[in-house]
């Protein structure tokens, strides 16, 4: 197995963990249930039972159709986890050939999402993720590779073929072909890609799988990848593309490119260039038929821009701006003045005059199309919680949607209010799962869409003078069959507009009379497909919305006075988010390859086209689907498909583990083990044999087990090792050949209050070292807290342990009983991209108890740090470099990519101080398949400077599994 493939396997798991942050901390102490069918195990908590049991039926239907469509099937039973950690639409699949699983997020997408065009969220999600598994988790037809993959998870992951665009593009292709909906047939998506094409901004082949700082870069693997694969099928046949998937699971091991080159006349890269040329040509041909654009640029922005909103007095515009910066997304709610920036124009004119005065022959740079309007206020997101959908409460307050974190470590969408004049933010709701909303009755009433456990409904809430929000009534029942979006109250407060999507139908715009309850559907252009962004006109006599038709989106206006529907944009620009400035002027976003900009449209002067045959029907024709077509989406339960039972310890899945450690100060060690566990991390255990194969300095065996199915977490670790202290790579205290064995147990109770995390624990240990018995009992607390304001942030950690024990090893020279404490305080901060931190570590034992504390050594599967409170492990020093009963470590560090630059000082009793400085890093993964759960990678290099000895350079790298 090549090292690059090993790193790919590890990065695959880490990508899943970081991309869907918080799925790694699901509450595994809940009442988890399992519904097991012939081919699937569906895991869920009681709140998601209806969603889960319906999805089980959908999974079996999808499996049957996919097998019919391509003759492939998974021989292993698939585990599916129904969760909702982010209160947002998503999901992922982990395509291990012997242990495939997927996670389905219950919350459906909103109307303006690129995944909103579906027969139903559940059906689309099940289909998309299962296709990932069938596509990527096929067992190799090489018996040897298949057997090794079954034994060793990381090897199995390293055999996953294909680039990101291949995986996402193919799953998106089948999601569309088997339903006639999906991203391939989304007019909104098509309008955006055609705009990119006209600008020559479609991604190159090398960029297709990238996730970088460019606008929509992460989406291109899906949106462009699916169209390229469809183009390959249309030009070279479905069977030719299908042959690629057959070739890459062959006995002969092939990469995607090798499998592709064997059946297509040119490489994937060369054919992609031809596809881009044809797609761009078609977009440019269409461009010549568009009339001149009536909208003019009003505010030039970049990045992800959404939800513009005009203040009641018309003097300010609020808008959400998101920019990507490497691995982080910066989110800011900006408030601009709506008046023109005359000062900026004056400064430009003065600069030009000065330039030409100094050099009359010079040519001044042209003026911008529009001078950027003055920024009046700005609010950054807190703790990476996002900001969405701002709406003005009054001229000094903006209500917006953001995420809140529950004590169960689940994110919920809630409402917050920002007071501009004093820059204070107040949370209005708590764990209410409120998404889009609107404000009525002078700020006393809020209409919102709530989505809880995958069920959508419209609710009416009351906001009192103390900024407290309470539910007043449910306007619609909570439903898995309907999804609501964009509630918008009319200017006279008598009518509520909203969008609704029903299974197997398109989004429709409804108007409900608040007083009478009467409801009507707003007509849309016939054969429309995309529909979103409703906005009332200022006089309430018409309503604007965006609809997609014929691979383009347009802005439409429906007039209630004469029941007429007109389009007011040409379709050249991908328009979104209309907002009325006054009776005759409308602002809207228009997307380009750098992100949306804000344009101004004079409605009374716009070229209007009357729609002669509008429709109120949301019925979808399925003529775009292939012959292998899924049945209509349905939320239905067939209990006869399987049996329901308690999750218990979950489906235990085992793997061989292989770890390696090289520490230039102490020893090297290979660790071979077996590990078993479940994806939720309810019950895990592992056993390891550890051996120094070169000098036999350190060897032994260990076993660990952990149960997290209760609120109190329980863990046990047993070990036995031999350490030749006098043969380590660096000088240490000569204690000869130490033999130690022990059993460590821990019970802990974690708690969480937003970003404040507490973990109280009790530990006990019995051990025997060189035939001398020892034991201790300890109590402790770990506390963590953080605050991040985007441009600056603070992280603080504190832990302390008090213990009492007895160690007969030291009885010959001192008292065998002892008391003591260990602890650490760490604080670090960042400001405008620069970080700095300091930490202080201490340990002390009773002065007359002998030198119980030792300094040096490293942590591995065999020697896990939490099980050795009397060993102060530090990788740049050998085991037992120093011994005493008092220890202090002071450290300063600068966080950098993948680690930190540090300077630390070790002080052990009255002995010489040891300074060390260098680079170190730790990667610990706590979520994923068994082989990478609890995987810890330690690495670093340090210069070690003892006070009275020669300095030395030490390096280390360690890979192990540690509970």
**Strand order in space, largest sheet:** 32-33-34-35-36-37-38-39-40-41-42-46-47-48-49-50
State Rg: 31 Å
CATH architecture of the largest domain: 6 Propeller
Strand content: 35-45%
Helix content: 10-25%
CATH class of the largest domain: Mainly Beta
Tell me the structural class: alpha+beta
Fold-level CATH name of the largest domain = Neuraminidase
Shape from CA axes? globular
Main beta sheet strand tally, sense and closure? 16 strands, antiparallel, barrel
Low-pLDDT windows of residues: 13-23
Tell me the name of the CATH homologous superfamily of the largest domain: TolB, C-terminal domain
Task: Domain count, please report it.
Answer: 4
Would you kindly provide a written description of the structure presented here, covering whatever features stand out?
This protein has 963 residues and is α+β, with helices and mostly antiparallel strands. The protein folds into 4 domains: 160 residues, Zincin-like; 128 residues, no CATH class; 281 residues, TolB, C-terminal domain (Neuraminidase); 217 residues, Porin (Beta Barrel). It is 17% helix and 42% strand. The strands form 9 sheets. A 16-stranded antiparallel β-barrel has the order 32-33-34-35-36-37-38-39-40-41-42-46-47-48-49-50. Strands 4-5-3-2-1-31 form a 6-stranded mixed sheet, covered by helices on one side. Helix 2 packs across helix 3 and helix 6 crosses helix 8. It is globular. The chain starts with a helix and ends with a strand. About 1% of the residues have low confidence.
């Amino acid at each position: 197995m090549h090292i690059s493939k090993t790193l790919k396997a590890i990065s695959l798991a880490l990508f899943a963990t970081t991309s869907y942050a918080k799925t790694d901390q699901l509450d595994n102490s809940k009442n988890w249930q399992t519904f097991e069918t012939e081919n699937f195990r569906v895991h869920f908590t009681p709140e998601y039972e209806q969603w889960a049991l319906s999805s089980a039926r959908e999974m079996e239907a999808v499996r049957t159709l996919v097998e019919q469509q391509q003759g492939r099937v998974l021989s292993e039973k698939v585990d599916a986890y129904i969760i909702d950690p982010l209160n947002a639409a998503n999901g992922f699949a982990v395509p291990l050939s012997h242990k495939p699983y997927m996670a389905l997020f219950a919350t459906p997408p909103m109307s303006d999402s690129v995944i909103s065009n579906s027969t139903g969220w559940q059906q689309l999600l099940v289909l998309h993720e299962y296709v990932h598994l069938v596509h990527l988790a096929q067992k190799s037809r090489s018996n040897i590779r298949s057997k090794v993959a079954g034994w060793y998870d990381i090897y199995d992951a390293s055999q996953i073929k294909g680039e990101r665009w291949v995986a996402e593009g193919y799953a998106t292709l089948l999601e569309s072909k088997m339903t006639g909906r999906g991203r391939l047939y989304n007019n909104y998506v098509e309008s955006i890609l055609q705009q990119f094409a006209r600008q020559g901004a479609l991604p190159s082949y090398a960029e297709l799988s990238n996730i970088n700082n460019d606008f929509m870069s992460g989406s291109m693997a899906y949106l462009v990848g699916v169209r390229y694969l469809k183009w390959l099928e249309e030009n070279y046949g479905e069977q030719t593309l299908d042959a690629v998937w057959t070739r890459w699971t062959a006995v002969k091991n092939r990469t995607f490119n090798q499998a592709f080159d064997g059946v297509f006349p040119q490489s994937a890269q060369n054919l992609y260039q031809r596809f881009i040329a044809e797609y761009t040509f078609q977009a440019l041909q269409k461009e010549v038929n568009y009339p001149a654009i009536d909208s003019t640029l009003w505010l030039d922005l970049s990045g992800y821009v959404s939800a513009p909103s005009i203040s009641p007095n018309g003097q300010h515009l609020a808008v959400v701006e998101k920019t990507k910066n490497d691995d982080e997304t910066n989110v800011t709610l900006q408030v601009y003045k709506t008046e023109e920036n005359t000062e900026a124009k004056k400064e430009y004119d003065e600069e030009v005059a000065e330039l030409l005065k100094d050099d009359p022959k010079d040519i001044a740079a042209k003026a911008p199309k529009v001078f950027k309007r003055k920024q009046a206020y700005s609010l950054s997101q807190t703790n990476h919680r996002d900001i969405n959908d701002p709406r003005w409460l009054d001229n000094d307050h903006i209500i917006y949607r953001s995420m809140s974190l529950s004590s169960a470590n689940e994110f919920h969408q809630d409402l917050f209010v920002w007071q501009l004049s004093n820059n204070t933010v107040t949370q209005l709701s708590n764990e209410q799962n409120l998404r889009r909303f609107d404000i009525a009755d002078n700020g006393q009433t809020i209409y919102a869409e709530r989505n809880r456990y995958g069920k959508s409904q419209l609710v009416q809430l009351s906001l009192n003078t103390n900024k407290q929000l309470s539910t007043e009534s449910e306007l619609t029942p909570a439903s898995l069959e309907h999804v609501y979006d964009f509630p918008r109250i009319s200017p006279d407060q008598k009518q509520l507009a909203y969008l609704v999507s029903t299974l197997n139908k398109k989004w429709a715009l409804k108007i409900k009379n608040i007083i009478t309850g009467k409801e009507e559907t707003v007509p849309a252009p016939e054969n429309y497909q995309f529909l979103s962004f409703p906005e009332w006109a200022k006089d309430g006599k018409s309503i604007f919305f965006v609809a997609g038709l014929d691979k383009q989106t347009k802005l439409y206006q429906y007039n209630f006075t004469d029941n007429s529907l007109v389009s007011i944009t040409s379709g050249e620009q991908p328009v979104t988010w209309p907002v009325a400035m006054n009776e005759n002027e409308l602002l809207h976003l228009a997307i380009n390859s750098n992100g949306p900009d804000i344009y101004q449209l004079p409605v009374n002067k716009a070229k209007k086209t009357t729609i002669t045959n509008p429709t109120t029907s949301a019925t979808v024709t399925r003529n775009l689907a292939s012959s292998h077509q899924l049945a209509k989406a349905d939320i239905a339960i067939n209990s006869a498909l399987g049996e329901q039972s308690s999750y218990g310890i979950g489906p235990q899945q085992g793997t061989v583990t292989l770890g390696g450690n090289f520490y230039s100060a102490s020893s090297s060690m290979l660790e071979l083990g077996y590990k078993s566990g479940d994806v939720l991390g309810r019950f895990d255990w592992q056993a390891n044999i550890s051996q120094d194969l070169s000098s036999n300095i350190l060897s032994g065996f260990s076993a660990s087990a952990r149960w997290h199915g209760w609120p109190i977490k329980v863990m046990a670790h047993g070990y036995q090792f031999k350490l030749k202290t006098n043969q380590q790579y660096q000088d240490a205290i000569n204690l000869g050949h130490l033999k130690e064995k022990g059993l460590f147990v821990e019970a802990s109770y974690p708690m969480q209050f937003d970003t404040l995390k507490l973990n109280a624990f009790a530990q006990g240990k019995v051990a025997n070292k060189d035939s001398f018995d020892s034991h201790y009992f300890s109590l402790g607390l770990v506390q963590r807290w953080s605050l991040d304001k985007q441009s600056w942030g603070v992280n603080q950690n504190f832990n302390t342990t008090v213990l009492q024990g007895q160690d007969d090893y030291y009885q010959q020279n001192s008292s065998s009983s002892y008391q003591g404490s260990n602890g650490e305080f760490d604080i670090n901060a960042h400001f405008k991209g620069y970080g700095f931190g300091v930490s202080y570590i201490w340990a002390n034992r009773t002065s007359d108890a002998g030198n119980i504390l030792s300094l040096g050594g490293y942590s591995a599967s065999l020697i896990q740090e939490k099980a050795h409170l009397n060993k102060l492990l530090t990788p740049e020093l050998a085991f037992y470099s120093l011994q005493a009963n008092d220890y202090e470590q002071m450290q300063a560090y600068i966080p950098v990519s993948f680690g930190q630059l540090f300077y630390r000082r070790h002080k052990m009793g009255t002995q010489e101080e040891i300074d060390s400085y260098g680079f170190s890093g730790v990667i610990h993964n706590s979520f994923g398949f068994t082989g990478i759960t609890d995987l810890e990678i330690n690495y670093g290099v340090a210069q070690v400077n003892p006070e009275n000895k020669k300095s030395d350079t030490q390096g280390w790298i360690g890979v192990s599994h540690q509970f």
